[in-house]
Amino acid sequence: KNIVILISGGGSNMRALVEAAQREGWDKRWGARVSAVISNRADSAGLAWAQARGLTTAVLSHRDFASREAFDEALAALIDPHQPTLVLLAGFMRILTPGFVARYAGRLVNIHPSLLPAFTGLDTHRRAIEAGCAVAGATVHQVTAELDHGHILGQAVVPILPGDTPDALAARVLSQEHRLYPSVVARWLAGA
Ligand code: GRF
């Protein structure tokens, strides 16, 4: 079984997923391998890491396309040869079209840095602090056409501490994302 991961930036969640897959073994507990990492940005640090690791990588710049539909068609053309059992969004900062979402229905998963359904969209950590929340966290969920909605597959909760800045909270959440995402994927692959 193949997994395709889509990234835009640092790719630390992608790294956590690749390392879990390699540790758990594609022929053992995971039963799947990360067969491609695709970024919409050529300068994404995660892409360089994946290349150095010997993974198949591709860059598809959204700037080269006139519409979201055209970009998503080209993206699907890169993904489909892998016949992925899962397409994982890991810090992939593009809104996907309903057509793309439908094409991968049931096997398209995202991680979002808030406790959904609270704080969809951007700037989640600042908003959680300003709202006076006592906790924040991350959510792994199925992707539907509506942004940051879709069935919740798993969540991790972290405290918001007195004097927290958005950056400090983001770092605390991100380190939990690196545990959450691989564990949800492992559960999924095990058929739970
Ligand atoms: C993560 O916080 C993820 O939840 C959000 O963007 C960040 C990506 O970080 N969507 P990385 O690229 O995985 O390091």
Automatic annotation (TrEMBL):
UniProt-listed Enzyme Commission number(s): 2.1.2.2
Active site: residue positions: 112
Positions that bind N(1)-(5-phospho-beta-D-ribosyl)glycinamide: 11-13
Record-level Gene Ontology MF annotations: phosphoribosylglycinamide formyltransferase activity
Pfam families the UniProt entry points to: Formyl_trans_N (PF00551)
InterPro entries listed in its UniProt record: Formyl_transf_N, Formyl_transf_N_sf, GART, GART_AS
Matches recorded under SUPFAM superfamilies: Formyltransferase
CDD domains assigned to the protein according to its UniProt record, in alphabetical order: FMT_core_GART (cd08645)
Alphabetic keyword roster: Purine biosynthesis, Transferase
The keyword Transferase is assigned to this record: yes
Gene3D superfamilies for the chain: Formyl transferase, N-terminal domain
Catalytic activity: N(1)-(5-phospho-beta-D-ribosyl)glycinamide + (6R)-10-formyltetrahydrofolate = N(2)-formyl-N(1)-(5-phospho-beta-D-ribosyl)glycinamide + (6S)-5,6,7,8-tetrahydrofolate + H(+)
Occurrences of domain Formyl transferase N-terminal (ranges): 1-185
Pathway involvement of the protein, from the record: Purine metabolism; IMP biosynthesis via de novo pathway; N(2)-formyl-N(1)-(5-phospho-D-ribosyl)glycinamide from N(1)-(5-phospho-D-ribosyl)glycinamide (10-formyl THF route): step 1/1
Site features described as Raises pKa of active site His, chain residue numbers: 148
Residues binding (6R)-10-formyltetrahydrofolate, per UniProt: 68, 93-96, 110
Enzyme class at the top of the EC tree: transferase
Signal sequence range: none
Origin superkingdom: Bacteria
Function of the protein: Catalyzes the transfer of a formyl group from 10-formyltetrahydrofolate to 5-phospho-ribosyl-glycinamide (GAR), producing 5-phospho-ribosyl-N-formylglycinamide (FGAR) and tetrahydrofolate.
Cited HAMAP family: PurN
Name of the protein this chain belongs to: Phosphoribosylglycinamide formyltransferase
